[in-house]
Amino acid sequence: MDSDKNDNVDIIIYWVDGSDPEWLNQYSKYKAMPPKRFRDLSTLKYVFRGFDKFFPWVRHIHFITSGHLPSWLNLSNPRLKFHTHENIFIYPDALPVFNSSAIEINFANIDGLAEKFILFNDDMLVLNPVDIERFFINNLPVDYLKLSYPRQGFIYSKLKPQNYLAAQFIMNAYKYIGPLRVLELDIKNIFSKNYSMITNVNNLLYFLLLKVMWLDIYHQPQPHLKSTWLKFIGDNKDGVIKNTVYSKFRSPNDINQYLFRFINLLSGRFYPKQFRDHLSIYVKNELDIDKVFQLRKLPTFLCICEEESIDDHKFEKLKIALSNNLLRIFPEKSSFEK
Q1: Torsions phi, psi of 35, nearest 5?
Q2: pLDDT tens digits, one per residue of 180-237
């Protein structure tokens, strides 16, 4: 158990309003119309309702945007800390940027951020109660080390085109971290009674290869240590950090927040425990949405992403279906709403 439940833990969540006229005007100075991944499924309000209901032990919610705000947000809530990109960027002259990796790299620069924080995306919904031990035990991030194979190459780019660029960011991380030999890792972190049997058997197979080729990743809220970020950023500020921050749009040479998770995993700065309480899915229509909410038991963390290929009409129908389902779970306003 965490020795001090009152120890500060913060949340970071960042958001883009792809329909904001000023943001669109800035974007159009550098590129044509933004891709459909900037469309907003309007989940943010329900993410905050989840924070209000299920994260009473979190100290502050640090909310990051380029400057725009949702009309419903209550800035007077004492737990809410609003920051613009200008407030947090290590290199302010890099702005504006439209690259999530470039924005993420600056999070450790948030004024007043706790040493222990949880990184959320605006599509990560919290649907069940959560204890602090889900994320931190003994002041360490709760995480698991699962060895895997690299997501790269021509075949992967065809099988998972929507993930290919993000996988390149992750491959870039391995250039800057170590050790990469399995035998140099703490065996207690490779095999743990707190992992699933599948993970332990999987790790045994990869253990025989002796090399860390890839660490399993997942799309769910991620616990971090600010000190890990600050150490790497301090050592690499004028190299890959600067290059990523100045990358106005996503680039194959970027790194992202997974790098800091990998540093903790490979150095043993984590508490080994694997949870199977999250679900991340891509949906194409409102029927896909309804199927999720008809599950006998909803996951604690649910991430819903729409297929970028769907047209705007289908997107609006999907958004309505999602809002209708979430309203049944969160019918009341949160303290983060006006």
Answers
A1: -65, 165
A2: 788 889 999 999 999 999 999 999 999 888 888 889 988 899 999 999 999 999 999 9
In a domain? residue 336: no
Note down the domain range covering 68.
Answer: 9-329
**Total domains in the fold of the chain:** 1
Give a yes or no: residue 2 inside a domain: no
Cis? peptide before 179, omega within 30° of 0: yes
What does pTM read for this prediction?
Answer: 0.93
Identify the burial level of 181 via C-beta atoms within 10 angstroms of its C-beta, where 0-12 means exposed, 13-18 middle and 19 or more buried. exposed
Phi–psi pair at 270, nearest 5 degrees: -155, 160
Residue 59 in any domain: the answer is yes
Using alpha carbons, select from 250, 215, 261 the residue that is nearest to residue 107.
Answer: 261
Inside any domain, residue 23: yes
Residue length of the chain = 338
d(CA 115, CA 108): 9
